[in-house]
């Protein structure tokens, strides 16, 4: 399926609270002893964490909570470098080509995998050192304006069938949301107008400006906006026991579009295992830190530590899922 992607530039500024020492531009042990031990191996100098999102976006805010914790525990400067250009590929390359000393890291989710299967990026997750999982950002939610003429996915599909190409949804070109919406079109037998809308923060801006009819957001953010009367939730990607009132995509008849988001740390390929282990020690203790837990829950998410092997296993499963999904919708550029 060849889909014309419409572009627009979101014009709203996103305000964020400053985190001391963490500025930039362009389930576990208590961690007290392990993090102290980690200090002998890492970091030896200031650390740069590259984030393929704008300052103030959800990914950026989660990264800053981690950076603030590591800086506090190590006494070393930890800088967030925001590089959203190229659907994240600029940040990917900045890290992939860096010295593999653990001082240049990437903080991101499985769009690193999606970009390969859509042809946006020519390297796989295996071209990096996959360090660990840091955060569970929960299920994705399909959201629409509160006055939209549909209350769930089934009604959205019926509406889209009557208005082919007339329902606008926001995606990040070459990313997971692009694959999700194209898969939804394929599963439901509908034609949507896919709009390049960037990050989740950009999608919220576009929804507020009525540039989109519906889109996907992380569940906790969607719930906050629903409570404020600014949008309504049509369905969620996976069942969340804390919010059983929402039907899943599978329950609505569309099992292929449900997904969950985990944030991970990656570094250049070839990092010394002792450095990888040291970073893991800090993230273990981070996951149990009450202050970091509260900060994460406030912006929507749960600290969730996954070791290196668990991270690789998750990425492998995501790669297989995206391979299958892009082949089904005709956007897989890797199989000739």
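^ Assign residues to that structure.
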């Amino acid at each position: 399926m060849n889909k014309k992607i419409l572009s627009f530039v979101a014009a709203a500024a996103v305000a964020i609270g400053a985190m001391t020492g963490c500025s930039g531009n362009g389930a576990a042990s208590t961690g007290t002893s392990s993090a102290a031990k980690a200090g002998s191996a890492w970091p030896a100098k200031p650390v740069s964490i590259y984030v393929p999102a704008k300052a103030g976006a959800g990914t950026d805010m989660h990264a800053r909570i981690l950076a603030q914790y590591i800086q506090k525990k190590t006494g070393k400067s930890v800088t967030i470098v925001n590089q959203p250009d190229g659907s994240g590929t600029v940040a990917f390359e900045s890290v992939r080509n860096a010295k593999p000393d653990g001082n240049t890291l990437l903080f991101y989710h499985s769009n690193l995998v999606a970009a390969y299967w859509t042809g946006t990026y020519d390297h796989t997750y295996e071209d990096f050192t996959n360090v660990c999982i840091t955060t569970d950002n929960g299920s994705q939610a399909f959201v629409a304006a509160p006055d939209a003429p549909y209350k769930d996915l089934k009604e959205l599909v019926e509406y889209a069938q009557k208005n082919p190409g007339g329902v606008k949804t926001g995606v990040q070109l070459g990313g997971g949301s692009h694959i999700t919406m194209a898969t939804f079109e394929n599963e439901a037998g509908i034609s949507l107008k896919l709009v390049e809308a960037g990050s989740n923060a950009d999608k919220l801006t576009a929804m507020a400006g009525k540039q989109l009819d519906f889109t996907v957001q992380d569940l906790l953010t969607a719930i906050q906006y629903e409570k404020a009367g600014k949008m309504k939730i049509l369905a969620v990607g996976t069942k969340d026991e804390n919010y059983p009132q929402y039907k899943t995509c599978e329950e609505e008849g569309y099992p292929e579009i449900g997904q969950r988001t985990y944030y991970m740390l990656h570094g250049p390929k070839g990092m010394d295992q002792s450095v990888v282990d040291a970073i893991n020690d800090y993230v273990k203790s981070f996951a149990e830190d009450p202050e970091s837990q509260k900060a994460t829950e406030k912006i929507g998410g749960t600290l969730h530590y996954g070791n290196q092997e668990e991270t690789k296993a998750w990425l492998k499963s995501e790669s297989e899922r995206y391979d299958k999904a892009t082949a089904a919708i005709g956007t897989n550029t890797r199989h000739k």
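The CA atoms of residues 184 and 233 lie 16 Å apart.
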